Amino acid sequence: MRTKPQPTTAIATSDSKTIRVRGHDLVEELIGQATFTEMFLLQLTGKRPTPTQVRILDAVLVTLMEHGLTPSVIATRLIYHSAPDALQAAVAAGLLGVGTTFIGTMEGCAALLEEMLAAPEGLEARARDIALRHKEAGKPVHGFGHPHHKPDDPRTPRMLAVAEGQDVPGRHIAALKMLSAQVDAVYGRHVTINATGASAALLGEIGIPQKVMRGVAVVSRSAGLVGHIYEESQQPSAAFIWETVDEAIPYRAQDAA
Amino acid sequence: MRTKPQPTTAIATSDSKTIRVRGHDLVEELIGQATFTEMFLLQLTGKRPTPTQVRILDAVLVTLMEHGLTPSVIATRLIYHSAPDALQAAVAAGLLGVGTTFIGTMEGCAALLEEMLAAPEGLEARARDIALRHKEAGKPVHGFGHPHHKPDDPRTPRMLAVAEGQDVPGRHIAALKMLSAQVDAVYGRHVTINATGASAALLGEIGIPQKVMRGVAVVSRSAGLVGHIYEESQQPSAAFIWETVDEAIPYRAQDAA
Amino acid sequence: MRTKPQPTTAIATSDSKTIRVRGHDLVEELIGQATFTEMFLLQLTGKRPTPTQVRILDAVLVTLMEHGLTPSVIATRLIYHSAPDALQAAVAAGLLGVGTTFIGTMEGCAALLEEMLAAPEGLEARARDIALRHKEAGKPVHGFGHPHHKPDDPRTPRMLAVAEGQDVPGRHIAALKMLSAQVDAVYGRHVTINATGASAALLGEIGIPQKVMRGVAVVSRSAGLVGHIYEESQQPSAAFIWETVDEAIPYRAQDAA
Amino acid sequence: MRTKPQPTTAIATSDSKTIRVRGHDLVEELIGQATFTEMFLLQLTGKRPTPTQVRILDAVLVTLMEHGLTPSVIATRLIYHSAPDALQAAVAAGLLGVGTTFIGTMEGCAALLEEMLAAPEGLEARARDIALRHKEAGKPVHGFGHPHHKPDDPRTPRMLAVAEGQDVPGRHIAALKMLSAQVDAVYGRHVTINATGASAALLGEIGIPQKVMRGVAVVSRSAGLVGHIYEESQQPSAAFIWETVDEAIPYRAQDAA
Questions:
Q1: Closest alpha carbon within chain D to C98
Q2: Keywords assigned by UniProt (chains A, B, C, D) (predicted)?
Q3: Sorting pLDDT into bands at 50, 70 and 90, what band is A3?
Q4: Contact with chain C for residue D133, Cβ under 8 A
Q5: Strand locations in D153-222, DSSP E?
Q6: Which parts of chain D have pLDDT scores under 50?
């Protein structure tokens, strides 16, 4: 006896001759006509995207795809070496690193922007309050600061410029800039808006729900990781990485207990 | 003491002010200028893609993104329900299903096309030989046949038409069509070229190495799965799926041994 | 130039003739002498376990291994069907479901027990406070309640009896029982301690850190999932599951937008 | 309309008061009475194991759990650093490396042993044939050779001694020894049986199906990885690994294309 309510799906249906995705005929309307980014937005939002949405999502996807030999990339290369016949597993291993430490700050920043936009006292007062409470707690503000890109993350102004060249409401970008001003004032020094902070604002402008923003990073990174797998297949690094790490981390003897 | 040769990477490098990907300045040349699909091709091949490459890769990425409640989608929805704070894990779980049973046939078909294109006796003779040896072994020819899309997979002619409208060498498509003709002749009935067969030919035309073709499907499916995660977050199905499966598969008592 | 402090590892080292794990010679002292559970405790804690630790960890590992066609099991069976040559991927897909919704409550309950044990006002007052604040917030108390095992989870008394038959300090068990009494009093009805609640207390008694308790469930479930993979290989269910789910969840048309 | 035959499961069933696993009452017969290894064998084979099966499986599980900073361990530590709130994802990432390159040789060796045991011409002739065909193909014989443990893998004689001290049929062990003799003769030098070769023979002796042998390694490694996660949580290495790898692998400039 079923006790759970029956769900439905609005994403896709098919029969022998037709596949419909989000109300569109895949063959007649989408293949050869939509780009990947348009199709991703249709899949996610259920609506044909505007050119502005496409351009902004492309900017975010391009920004997040690649940043060298990151933890995700190293994991992917090692797992590909261990299981070369299951490429999907190597990609999955790397994607499991798209977690709270790095990319999750995008969602954290988006939550702060939403909090500011809903605050009855206005952007400035709430931004100051956010900066103060993070400083007091000794916690970094999500979307701000970068270990290498100092004093400024070079991606951020370019990302914001892309959005500002488009027809967007601008509320999330305005909130991010206000938060940046208050962070600098409260901390008494300039702290860069980083690429995840800019991504949070851009994705907010085009209506990507905060709860699946991490999914945008997952998609972008999956493409980046496939590129690393191909390079790994042509010029293997995994055995070298293994040896290098093993030598770099010494064994600390403990008494047998 | 290092024993492994030192590898290098040609993908990316960065300093505090600059990020270079495949020889291009990410900020100055790519963000806001390249689409996701262009960036993916640059990341994978190391070269700026041609419009033809972009258009064909988009067609493949759009085709493979979504096909309803597949095993990958079901796995993703169940894992999202079990670990909603780790969206990347739900995507990874579904991507682990981009394996040999379904998508892997793309690589198998690509290998047959490569075999034909390298055969000294020519396409037709080798295609006939391939069809015969599969029939004798009782094995399906990779890239042919579909359980639901009969007699023809509707995606295939559209995908081929997209490629034929572009400036491509056409060798892989010609090989696929020849193989199709010989499969029909040898089996004595029409067997559709399916979407993975068409994908193999299209990706071959634009120079995607056979060994990472599965990666194209992984990227496309990652976007599809993010769409399902968002729908799952709005209208949960996982508890219903669990209950439905549990009721549909009865327990078969065995004696305690 | 290295900026990060160099870590060390105390887990293992080896040369051509010897492998040492936690200070013990793997060949001379462990293989053929230690059980899996003893080795797991040595690996995790760095110390040879007591018989009490082994017996209690065995009880938890046995309890959590199997509970029928759970979301994790369904995901594993579907992924095994999609990628049968990568068994590790099918196990990994299922393990990704050992997340916050079900198993994570073990850690949540352990945190409550630690809070009680550290409370200056004593167990009873803090237990009452915990029960009250959960009731007011309308949130379930981690480690309490079960959708099917009502009014009582049959595993719990047995697990507690195993621990009480051993030489353990008993502080975590006492805390759990006090919390149970206060939950019943505050909610005005009996709410069962479930198996994750009992696991939290038992693992606390033997010194397993709260932060890796989920790892115990991961290990136990990995064995359970391997059993399901073998049954799936002998009597496939994945195609049936796919069809069943696809039929049970109808498509909800939306207008093309 | 269902088209797939309805499967059943013989693993578990439950109602509000009872959970049965493989025909046994979990609470009355297993918790507090079975060890993890006994429960794993029951789960996998459907039968209560003999003491010999338990002792041999324990020897294999203990052998494979830990071997220092392997690719799986490095992947797990990096992913744990990136997503510390999803411990299961870190374990899964490492387990994805239990693939064909290292552990998969266990299954390959088991297949060779099965081939020998089924050969009408007898063990010796088939072993010689196997060694010859691998030598001619320039391929290593699965289960033989080790990059570090030369001339002999120290685990192997100990593992075989454990099995020989038990009441086992001895057919798989005899086959492995015969294969070893022929490998040495054909290659003209001593090649060690490694731990995966010994594991293949031991698991064959106790009736573990070749097709799920990799699952034994997955279970064993999952415990090893949890130990590394705990050490990582106490003494982080991931940022150091990242920096070390990034510095050790130089960027190779390519012209922008």
A1: D88
A2: Lyase, Transferase
A3: confident
A4: no
A5: none
A6: none
Q: Cβ contacts (< 8 Å) between C8 and chain D: which residues?
A: 235
The span from the CA of D40 to the CA of D42, in Å, is 5
CATH number of B104-211: 1.10.230.10
Among B57, B89, B90, which residue's Cα sits nearest to residue B212? B57
The H-or-E segment that residue B13 falls in is: strand B12-14
Closest CA to B88 of A218, A110, A65, D91: A218
Write down the pLDDT at residue C4.
Answer: 87
Q: How far apart are CA A95 and CA A84, in angstroms?
A: 17
| Interatomic CA distance for residues D37 and A29, integer angstroms | 56
Question: Cα C176 from chain centroid?
Answer: 17
Q: What is the DSSP string of A220-248?
A: HHHHHHHHHHHHHHHS--HHHHHHHHHHH
Please report how the helices B155-164 and B51-64 are oriented relative to each other, as an axis angle in degrees rounded to 10.
170
For residue B2, what is the nearest residue in chain D, using CA coordinates?
A: D248
Domain D52-240 coded CATH 1.10.230.10: yes
Facing residue for B13 by CB, picked from D12, D85, D251: D251
CB-based contact, B209 to chain A, within 8 Å: yes
pLDDT in tens, B67-94: 999 999 999 999 999 999 999 999 999 9
Residues B36, A58 contacting (CB under 8 angstroms): yes
The candidate with the shortest Cα–Cα distance to A240, out of D246, D105, B212, is D246
Across the interface, of A78, A81, A249, the residue whose CB is closest to D237 is A249
The closest alpha carbon to C249, from B74, A145, B42, belongs to B74
Instruction: Kindly report the backbone phi and psi dihedral angles of residue A237, in degrees, each rounded to the nearest multiple of 5, phi listed first.
Output: -120, -10
Using the predicted structure, report yes or no on whether residue C125 has a pLDDT greater than 80. yes
| Type and span of the H or E element at B75 | helix B71-82
Cβ–Cβ below 8 Å for C23 and A248:
no
CB contact under 8 A, A85 and D97: no
- In angstroms, the first-to-last Cα distance of chain B is 54
How far apart are alpha carbons D10 and D2 in whole angstroms? 22
D46–chain B Cβ distance below 8 A for any pair: yes
Q: For position C1, what pLDDT does the model report? A: 59
Q: Which of A145, A185, A159 is nearest to A58 (CA)?
A: A159
H or E segment at A25?
A: strand A24-25
CA angle B98, B99, B100 (to 5 degrees): 145
* Average pLDDT of chain B to the nearest whole number: 96
pLDDT tens by residue, B212-241: 999 999 999 999 999 999 999 999 999 999
Say what the ipTM of the complex is: 0.97
Scanning every residue of chain D, which has its alpha carbon at the shortest distance from the alpha carbon of B249?
A: D8
Contact between residue D175 and residue D121 where contact means Cβ atoms under 8 Å apart: no
Q: Give the pLDDT score at A21.
A: 97
CB contact under 8 A, C7 and A47: no
Q: What is the pLDDT of residues B159-196, one digit of tens each?
A: 999 999 999 999 999 999 999 999 999 999 999 999 99
Mean pLDDT for chain A?
Answer: 96
DSSP output for D61-85: HHHHS--SS-HHHHHHHHHHHH-TT
In this prediction, residue C104 has a pLDDT band, given cuts at 50, 70 and 90, of confident
Nearest to A16 by CA among B147, D109, C63: B147
From CA A170, how far away is CA A174, in angstroms rounded?
6
Chain segment C77-94, per-residue pLDDT in tens? 999 999 999 999 999 999
Label residue A253 by pLDDT band (50, 70, 90). Answer: confident
CATH 1.10.230.10 domain span(s) along chain C: 104-211
